[in-house]
Design goal:
Blueprint (H helix, E strand, L loop, with lengths): L2 E8 L15 H5 L7 H17 L3 E5 L7 H6 L6 H11 L1 H8 L10 E4 L9 E5 L6 H4 L1 H12 L6 E4 L16 E4 L8 E6 L12 H10 L7 E5 L2 H6 L8 E4 L2 E5 L6 H11 L4 E5 L6 H7 L5 E4 L5 E6 H5 L1 H12 L4 E7 L2 H4 L9 E7 H6 L8 H14 L12 H17 L11
Parallel strand pairs: 1-2, 4-5, 7-8, 10-11, 13-14
Antiparallel strand pairs: 1-15, 3-4, 6-7, 9-10, 12-13
Helix pairs in contact: 2-16, 4-5, 16-17
The structure holds N~2~-(3-carboxypropanoyl)-L-ornithine.
Length: about 425
Amino acid sequence: MTHHEYNFDGLIGPTHNYAGLSFGNIASATNKGAASNPREAALQGLAKMRAAMELGLKQGFLPPQDRPHLKTLRALGFSGTDKQIIEKAVKAEPQLLANCYAASSMWTANAGTVAPSPDTADGKVHFTAANLAANFHRSIEAVTTSRMLKHIFKDEKFFVHHPPMPGAMHFGDEGAANHGRLCESHGDKGVHLFVYGEDGEKFPARQKKRASEAVARNHLLDESHTVFIKQSTTALDAGAFHNDVVGVANGTVLFLHEQSFADVQAAYAAIREKAPFAEIIEAPASAVSLEDCIKSYLFNSQLLTLPGGEMALLLPTEAEENERVKAFVDATLSKNNPINRVIYKNVRESMRNGGGPACLRLRVVLSEDEAAAADQHFILDDAKITALENWVRTHYRDRIAPDDLADPALMEESFAAMQALTDLLGMGAFYDVQR
Ligand SMILES: NCCC[C@H](NC(=O)CCC(=O)O)C(=O)O
């Protein structure tokens, strides 16, 4: 049975804006209050999806969520018509309104954790939607993400869905951004790397070890194929709020910064014991500092196995613009390892909120039967991408400044866009705002 990796990118929503909501995420803090361009953001994301497809790769997407999330505002005591809710929230708590307006579901690496069927005891694909408990605006995503994953991967013969972790921050879980899988080929039994954190001196850790352990149990992974690794607080305090800012795994390759893990030698030994085939490609701090990594998102690249077997890095243009990072990428390509190609893509609108190419995608390895059982509306081809581009051009603004969130017209435009999208995708009354 042939397995393929599908990248499910987050389609960037019509309310994408810079509200500075994520403590510990330097780009989010730095760009707080800047004007965003949601139309450009979504088109950049779609262009990245198209580029991956042109490499011969399988590409899916997850739709944006309904924002502003009126259901949350209602739960917090704002009442009346939709318009009145916005007006009252702007007056009482503008920052809360911004939280309910975030388009952060675009970063689908945080949608959940996925275990492909070759790895699980029951031979099914397991999904756990992330609770994203560390940040209020992101915690709102979990219920709809769960619904979305069940909608797309419905067939119980192939797919198992676990609810988001209970207990909020006690089991803080940020999904696949702190998870990687090493394997000889996508269809072989893989070794799962779970990276968790402990609070640094400056910034809090989002991923709890006990949450990673619970996900591994729920997914029926073999203990001999799981490794739990502590992230270094140096990386966390430098701005690596998710481990995928400092490392990425694909196939046999683990590509990372030498300061990613708390105890590097112990981590590498544990990885090599369970995945003896692993090839670790490390950036020394002397070549690329943590600061360079976090500014350029060098390791927030998509590391992709191309149909011919070689690997390509899909990087943000910020990495090409940093001399030291570009030199390290060029040196990596010239060495004897599977990484032979690089593609730089402009995802600047997302980058300015701390989300690079890898943040924008959830990897789902599927057999041909499993892929056929998934809802095909969400698996892309050229015509479907064009339809989404047209939808974006019809419904999105090209500018949102902080004050625009107070304008009820933005809410109405966003809900109209969601209605058109659910019509396009045959989703029925999917979103809270439609129920
Ligand atoms: N994997 C990348 C996630 C980026 C995301 N940024 C944000 O939510 C910023 C939103 C804002 O500040 O408006 C986060 O920090 O979780």
